[in-house]
Every structure is written in structure tokens, then in C-alpha cells.
Design a protein that fits this description.
Blueprint lengths: L1 E2 L11 E2 L9 E2 L8 H7 L9 E5 L11 H6 L1 H14 L2 H8 L2 H5 L1 H23 L3 H4 L2 E4 L3 H8 L5 H17 L6 E7 L3 H9 L6 E8 L2 E7 H13 L4 E4 L12 H12 L10 E2 L6 E2 L2 H13 L4 H10 L4 E5 L4 H9 L4 E5 L2 H8 L3
Parallel strand pairs: 1-3, 4-5, 4-12, 5-10, 12-13
Antiparallel strand pairs: 1-2, 6-8, 6-9, 7-8, 10-11
Helix pairs in contact: 3-6, 3-9, 6-8, 6-9, 9-12, 12-13
Length: 361
């Protein structure tokens, strides 16, 4: 789910989302967005020496009309969409194009749709530059379901297989916990250390940290009573605000164990290849290229914390200076700016974005 407060606003929050929403909760605080024009003028560094990492968004970024502009101009993107529709049927492409929004927000649709959008942009970028992604960057990472898109982008999985896995993942995560038994909450202004203190403060029935997205952006997940009690404890600790999120299940916590079992079985029947670039995994925040470990990390990820802040910091420590988000929305671009203010943070969603970014890669 995406929270998007107005620029420079500390008190008013706008909620985008609804029932059936995401396996990922991302909280956007403060001034994060820049126009494409502003990016072109102030953020694009034209140097072949700049190490680039590609980022793939998670659930909450989906929007009706996603990928349509890129599909209109790129045969390579059209080939991606054809593979997805061969695997899942033409209905998903129609929902991506025309909605309705409530259908697109359904976890089983949003997850493969976001992967499809990201891969359309990836292949369009390769088509535009005449270079493969491993010639353009040094590493990839994806937020939650975005890790599947990252793996597909660097050849560890094919597009059709990835689409099928994500639809299974969406169904499994949605049905793992009966509706009304789980909840998630954003702890606004909390550090990861404060969130860990809450988790370790008592014996909870089921409460875990779901996402460590950026400084001041931590999400917890678990049973409703535990989440409510944790919000109250956060207030006592002086954390600025704890806000329950309008999600249909408690994602990325121990209650997702049945979904992890489903994905273990699904992934057991799939061949993962050695990726052409290192993949920074959500559960370790570190790079990996071994297929067996990548597979295991995808299983652990269902119940594990998305260590996104650490991922970005580790990429920067390894020399990455430019981060390019591929696909729908600018959520990850905003998280880069919040975590690494001096880094170059770009996104490609439209043909104009493609032209601007391709010129500097």
C-alpha cells in the first residue's frame, strides 16, 4: 500500500488503496517527488563511470493504464506482454489497460501486472540503447514481488514462469490468514531500532517487522490485537505516529507461513538460472548470484522482513551512485532520495523517461 502525504505536510495523510491491497506496505513522507523535467535538468549525470543499479517496484504502485505508453512504442515491450498473456490469459492485460481499479488492486492481479510493467520497461530500455541490462548496470533489486521482476530482468527466470509464480504467490498470501485476523501498521518517524525494541518488549502472539523501507519508515505486521497494542506502545515511546493500514492480510510476517509453504512447492518445480547481474535480496540486503540461494531467499521473503533501507545502503557502499526504477510509479525513487540524499535517483515509466535516462546510460 502506498501512503503519499502532501509535500511539506506533517499532519495530513492521503491514503491510496483499498480492500485486496498489497503484499508490500510503503510509507511516503515529506517531499519526495520531482517532475520528469526536473530530473532531466538536475539529476541526470552523463558519465559512463557512474555505477548504476536497477530497481523494481512492489505492490501499491499499480495504476490503471500501466505500461500502455511503453507498449505503444516498443516491440520489445509488446513481446513481454505477449509472454505474460500466453501464461495467464489476455484478461490481465485488459485489466492493466482499462481496469477496473478494484480488479487491478487484487493481489493475484497486481503482482504479475507490476512485474509485466517493469519487464516491458526493461526490455524497451535494452531496445533503445542496444545494450543488455548487464551492460547498463552493475546490480538489481526489487521490493517484495519486485524481486521476481529483478530475477526475470537478469535472466534467472523467464517472463512466463515469473508471471505464473506471482499469481500463485498473490493467491497464497491473500488466503494465508482469514480476513479480519491480521493487520499492518506504519510507524511514522520510527527507527528500525525502535521497532525492534517494540518487538522484543514482550511475548506477542504474532508480531513482526514487515518492511524497513527508509529512515523513519517502518511497517509492522501480525495479529490485530498485537498490532493495536504495538501502536499504543509506540506512542508511549514518543514515536510520532502509528497508523493501521487498509490491507486485507498481514503480509511479511510469521502468519504468512502457509503461503511460504505454497511458494516452496511452486519454486521447487522451477529452474532458476545464474543471473547476469548480482541480485540484492530482500531478506539479506546483500548481493547473490547462486540459484539455490536465490530460490531459498524467495521462500523466506514471504514471512521475512523487506530490508530495503539496508539494501540501498549496501549498494551505495559497493559503489552504486545512480539508481533507476523501472516500471510503474516512483515509490522506490522516493525511498532512494530519503535514504541516500546524494545519490542520483531516476525512474523510467514513459517514453519520455526512456529517452532521458537512455541518454545517460
Amino acid at each position: 500500500m502506498l501512503w503519499s502525504p502532501p509535500v511539506e505536510s506533517a499532519g495530513r495523510l492521503q491514503v491510496l488503496g483499498g480492500r485486496g491491497f498489497p503484499a508490500v506496505c510503503i510509507v511516503m513522507i515529506g517531499a519526495q517527488a520531482m517532475t520528469n523535467t526536473a530530473l532531466t535538468k538536475t539529476n541526470l549525470t552523463n558519465t559512463a563511470l557512474t555505477k548504476t543499479a536497477f530497481l523494481f517496484p512492489g505492490q501499491g504502485s499499480q495504476a490503471v493504464g500501466m505500461a500502455q505508453d511503453i507498449l505503444a512504442v516498443s516491440p520489445a515491450a509488446q513481446a513481454v506482454m505477449a509472454s505474460v498473456e500466453d501464461a495467464l490469459g489476455a484478461e490481465l492485460g485488459q485489466i492493466m489497460k482499462d481496469g477496473p481499479a478494484d480488479d487491478l488492486k487484487m493481489t493475484r492481479n497486481a503482482q504479475p501486472a507490476l512485474m509485466a510493467s517493469a519487464l516491458c520497461v526493461t526490455r524497451a530500455l535494452e531496445e533503445k540503447t542496444g545494450k543488455n541490462i548487464d551492460q547498463l548496470g552493475v546490480a538489481v533489486a526489487g521490493h517484495s514481488l519486485g524481486e521476481y521482476a529483478a530475477l526475470a530482468a537478469v535472466g534467472a527466470l523467464d517472463v512466463a514462469t515469473t508471471a505464473g509464480l506471482l499469481q500463485q504467490r498473490g493467491d497464497a498470501m491473500q488466503t494465508a490468514v482469514p480476513v479480519g485476523e491480521g493487520a499492518m501498521a506504519a510507524l511514522l518517524g520510527a527507527t528500525i531500532e525502535q521497532a525492534e525494541e517494540i518487538i522484543s518488549s514482550r511475548e506477542w502472539a504474532a508480531l513482526d517487522i514487515a518492511n524497513d523501507n527508509a529512515p523513519g519508515q517502518v511497517v509492522i505486521s501480525g495479529r490485530v490485537a498485537d498490532v493495536d497494542a504495538a501502536i499504543a506502545l509506540a506512542a508511549e515511546m514518543g514515536i510520532r505516529k502509528g497508523v493501521k493500514l487498509p490491507v486485507s492480510a498481514p503480509f511479511h510476517c510469521r502468519l504468512m507461513a502457509p503461503a511460504a509453504d505454497v511458494m516452496a512447492n511452486a519454486l521447487a518445480g522451477v529452474t532458476l538460472h545464474r543471473p547476469s547481474l548480482p541480485v540484492y535480496c530482500n531478506v539479506t540486503a546483500d548481493e547473490q548470484i547462486e540459484p539455490a540461494i536465490l530460490r531459498e531467499n524467495l521462500i523466506i521473503q514471504v514471512t521475512g522482513m523487506v530490508r530495503w533501507r539496508e539494501t540501498l545502503l549496501n549498494m551505495a557502499a559497493n559503489g552504486v551512485e545512480r539508481f533507476v526504477e523501472l516500471g510503474t510509479g516512483k515509490v522506490l525513487t522516493g525511498l532512494v532520495k530519503r535514504t541516500l540524499p546524494d545519490a542520483e535517483a531516476l525512474n523510467i515509466e514513459t517514453p519520455d523517461d526512456l529517452d532521458s535516462v537512455a541518454a545517460v546510460l
